[in-house]
């Protein structure tokens, strides 16, 4: 059964989440402090983290930033903040979804199931070449001109999806969905930040190449001719 970590300092909220998730067959662990959660995450394999933004010791955004230094486990933020900028920041620092309080515990459980389904390893060949790229889906690695790229989980999935269909123009919404981020979150512009970071890493290997092409008003594509 998937193992879900709940990081929430309000016992009443945590209890409702534990009940809803266990009713769906998930195993849960509840912690009330961000620092303690990071220690557990560093030494224990969880399948997904539900993370409150307003923790008493370390803010949820900071917890996520530190988590992304050593893990790409999916994260759902819980918060009382409904402003767009907070949602955008949450997604850009590596979250997979963002739920505003008050919320339905059953909806959160449904979102957990959807994210785990989207982020599950796809059945594909262990290693597939695409021009100067070598994609190893089993090891979650991509080599570019023979060099291993240091990619986040989002960057890996973004590049993997582009490489799978050369010259196809993907909209931001399609790419966001491919990352395992809920499409209804509605912040497709966060894709731009991931593309910018990915391009910088590709240029470190081949400075003059532009394998990821921008199509104004449409989205992005992978062009083997420019790789």
Automatic annotation (TrEMBL):
PROSITE patterns membership: OMPR_PHOB, RESPONSE_REGULATORY
InterPro entries listed in its UniProt record: CheY-like_superfamily, OmpR/PhoB-type_DNA-bd, Sig_transdc_resp-reg_C-effctor, Sig_transdc_resp-reg_receiver, WalR-like, WH-like_DNA-bd_sf
Keywords, in A-Z order: DNA-binding, Phosphoprotein
Gene3D superfamilies noted in UniProt: 3.40.50.2300, 6.10.250.690, Winged helix-like DNA-binding domain superfamily/Winged helix DNA-binding domain
DNA-binding region in chain numbering: 125-224
Cited Pfam families: Response_reg, Trans_reg_C
Residue intervals of the OmpR/PhoB-type domain: 125-224
The Response regulatory domain, residue ranges: 3-116
Source domain of life: Bacteria
Residues modified as 4-aspartylphosphate: 52
Protein known as: Two-component system response regulator CreB
Organism annotation: Pseudomonas aestuarii
Lineage of origin: Bacteria, Pseudomonadati, Pseudomonadota, Gammaproteobacteria, Pseudomonadales
This protein's encoding gene: creB
């Amino acid at each position: 059964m998937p193992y879900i970590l709940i990081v929430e300092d309000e016992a009443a909220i945590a209890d409702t989440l534990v009940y809803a998730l266990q009713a769906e067959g998930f195993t849960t662990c509840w912690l009330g402090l961000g620092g303690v959660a990071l220690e557990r995450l560093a030494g224990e394999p969880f399948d997904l983290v539900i993370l409150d933004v307003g923790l008493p010791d370390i803010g949820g955004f900071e917890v996520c930033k530190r988590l992304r230094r050593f893990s790409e486990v999916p994260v759902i933020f819980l918060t009382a903040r409904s402003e767009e900028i907070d949602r955008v920041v949450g997604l850009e620092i590596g979250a997979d979804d963002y739920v505003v309080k008050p919320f339905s515990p059953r909806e959160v459980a449904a979102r957990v199931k959807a994210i785990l389904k989207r982020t599950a390893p796809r059945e594909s060949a262990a290693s597939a070449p695409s021009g100067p790229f070598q994609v190893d889906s089993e090891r979650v690695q991509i080599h570019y001109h023979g060099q291993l790229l240091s990619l986040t989980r989002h960057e890996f999935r973004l590049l993997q999806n582009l490489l799978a269909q050369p010259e196809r123009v993907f909209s931001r919404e399609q790419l966001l969905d491919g990352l395992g981020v809920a499409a209804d979150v509605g912040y497709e512009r966060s894709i731009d930040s991931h593309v910018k970071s990915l391009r910088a890493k590709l240029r470190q290997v081949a400075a003059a190449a532009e394998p990821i092409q921008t199509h104004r008003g449409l989205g992005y594509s992978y062009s083997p001719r420019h790789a």
